[in-house]
Amino acid sequence: MLQAHSLLWHYLWVAPNIFFLVLVTLLWRRKLHKQFPVFFAFAVLGSVEQLTLYAADVIPSVSGETFWRVFWAGLLLESVLKFALVGEIFAHVFGAYPAVAKIGKLTMRGVGVTLVFAATVAAAYAPIDNPNYTIISRAHILEQTIFMIECGLLLFIFLFAGYFRLAWSNWDFGIALGLSISACVHLATWAVMANGGLPERRHLLDFLNMATYHACVLIWFYYLLVPQKIAVKPAVPLPENNLELWNRELERLLQQ
Question: How much is the pLDDT for 152?
Fold first, then answer.
């Protein structure tokens, strides 16, 4: 069962993306795409990208080099959207502080896009573990780098929001939770691949990645479709390094 091109392998590659497209349709009907435009774009692109890769993999006439070129193109587009999505989550969590949210969102998007291209250049010149499959090895290195950046940005949001005891909406928390689980698992598996680990059993890492993606899609299904609860403000006041003061000072600077 845990073999490439087994029934389970086909299911784990196709089913999550079909479910994701169903979620996209439901979000559109409920007009939630207006509140989460980047997540909506990420869901559409991610589903289409993975289904395209699946078709390229199973169609005999598509060469391995063509498959990995498509993989690289999809990876770069998806990475830009992921970093934009992290910025969207940041803006929602800090919505009560518009100046902080604006600066943080613009900064994180700019840094994210810059890091994607920097990671691409770094991956191109990184040591290759298998000279016979250069394009694959570089893809492993690039994936590892991107997921490392993504994990760092998400950890920053969780720690920053936790420090100031800010309440999360179910929707924002669900998106961030699924994205974090996916990033952590994929970082671990791509790090193993990038360093030449499990050369004879890499299909098991593919199964782990696909199963994790499936679980994350179900997490997004649950958090985005269940009724939204009204957030209750915590009884504990904000710490003395007052975020309100930061927000007012940023607003003053932006208005100058």
Answer: 81
Can you read off the two tokens belonging to residue 246? 């930061």
Nearest Cα to 191, choosing from 144, 133, 138, 137?
144
Q: Identify how many contiguous H helices and E strands the chain contains and give both numbers.
A: 8, 0
Burial class (CB in 10 A: 0-12, 13-18, 19+), 165: middle
pLDDT digits (tens, 9 = 90+) for 88-99: 888 888 777 776
Residues in the chain: 256
231 in any annotated domain? no
Separation between Cα atoms, residue 9 and residue 26, nearest integer Å? 27
* Residue 131 DSSP one-character state: G
Give the SS3 label for residue 8: helix
Residue 124, burial from CB neighbour count under 10 angstroms (0-12, 13-18, 19+): exposed
Specify the higher pLDDT residue, 106 or 37: 37
In order of 13, 94, 99, 161, 172, the CA distances from 244 in angstroms are: 46, 11, 10, 14, 22
**Is residue 171 included in any domain, yes or no?**
yes
Concatenated DSSP letters of 21-48: HHHHHHHHHTTGGGT-HHHHHHHHHHHH
Q: Are 85 and 100 in contact (CB under 8 A)?
A: no
pTM for the predicted model, two decimal places: 0.78
Sequence-ordered list of residues with C-beta below 8 angstroms from that of 204, at least 6 positions apart, any chain: 2, 198
CATH number for the domain that contains residue 87: 1.20.1070
In-domain check, residue 218: yes
